[in-house]
Amino acid sequence: MVVISVVVVYLLGMVAIGWYASKKIESNEDFMVAGRRLGPVMMAGTLAATEIGGGSSLGVVEKAYGSWGFSAVWYVLAMAVTFVILSFFAPKLRNAMVKTVPEYFRRRYGDAPGIITAIIMMLPLIGLTAAQFIASAVILEAMTLWSYSTCVLVVSVIVTVYAVLGGLWSVTLTDFIQMFLIVGGMFLAVPYALDAVGGWEVVKASMPAEKLSFTAGIGWGTIISLTIIYITSFAVGQEAVQRYYAAKDEKAAVQGSLIASGIYVIFAFIPVILGLIAFAMVEQGKMDPELMARGAKYALPSLAMATMPSVLAGFLFAGIISATMSSADSNMLGAGSIFANDIYRVYLHKNASDKQILRVTQMSMVVIGLAGLLIAWANTQSIIALLMFSMTLRAGGAFFPYIVGHYWKKASWAGVMASVIVGSTAVILVEQKLVSFFGLEPIFLGLASSAVVFVLFCNLFPNSENTVELKPE
């Protein structure tokens, strides 16, 4: 009962923050990009919390418990590498002065690239929202013994309410708090779990040596794939790029990206250690293997319930739910922003007022939350598998036109259309096993084909205006 009380207080607190943030919203720009006033610390907090989600917490514990072992640390370390690289592009992203990635495509390349990227980028965000709902529901289910369907419903309603109330400012404030809950809650679990298992030497003695390898379980191929997927996907992902758009200036954008990278390095080892401890406890009979019967994704909640005092277990559960909710709200806001800014305002109601666009953003977020709820109810896939495909799909065709478009004057309508269509199609074909590309992940064929046709068509049909400047709205 104590555990449930702690989590309930946390959930109500998130709604209260959403209500508070709603009082600061005076315009659509306030709602979508927090008035472009995020400093480096706030930006780092929201960047870190956004990408530390169900995959980085429950998913990493699951993989460390399972086949990846200690090398599961690379699932998060690859994010640290990614945000160091993105810091070099941060000034260009901030100075574009757009609200969404499809808006950049529309103003840089034309209407057709804008609407195509809007659709391609909205769909993965709905899938990513569902994945985070799933992860949050797993925690509530393990903690309360409520049905999975009930837990998905509770999580979906809470996230939708506070995200819709305050937009990016609400999401940033909750993310900042959630970052401390995520890292702090999981960090507190380590000493209790180590004490319960008998120390780190006992953990090492309970498993084969290869399970403690830094690279063997995951393999260099997957490490490289993860890094490429993160770089290309976060560079065009609305939920991440929206933070760069919201930075108060170039310096804040760069510093926020680097600080977020440091947070990833600190966090990366915590869920891995917890996954290995759970494995050792089951091996030694110190934790009932029946607790794991429903799947390794229950490793972390089962470990916490078996080793931690009730109050701290509640704090940990709040932290894990924070991890998943902080990603879900960003995905929902990203998808809602794209629909309102790049579909409704451009094609459905060209003379819409700022207030009307704001209301449509909020209403579309409700619809996206409902869609995520329905997907989460039906989903049976691995959390990480769902995340990886969603990120790969949007990155396959859009990465090169988006990043290169900030620098290359020749980048043109013909090049981006070929790149987005061919790259995205290639990702789907490999994912569905209709074609193979040397046995590599779908992202490789997507990026390779995208790059080739982008360069080819931009040279054949270059931008007639010979500029990287965006057209005015």
Automatic annotation (TrEMBL):
Keywords carried by this UniProt record: Membrane, Transmembrane, Transmembrane helix, Transport
Organism domain of life: Bacteria
Keyword Mitochondrion recorded: no
Annotated compartments: Membrane
Any one GO molecular function term: transmembrane transporter activity
Coiled coil: none
GO cellular component entries: plasma membrane
InterPro entries per UniProt: Na/Glc_symporter_sf, Na/solute_symporter, Sodium:Solute_Symporter
Transmembrane segments: 6-21, 72-91, 112-139, 145-169, 176-194, 214-237, 258-282, 302-323, 357-377, 383-404, 411-430, 442-461
Membrane topology: Multi-pass membrane protein
Presence of the UniProt keyword Transport in the record: yes
Similarity remark: Belongs to the sodium:solute symporter (SSF) (TC 2.A.21) family.
NCBIfam families noted in UniProt: sss
Protein name per Swiss-Prot or TrEMBL: Sodium:solute symport protein
Organism: Uabimicrobium amorphum
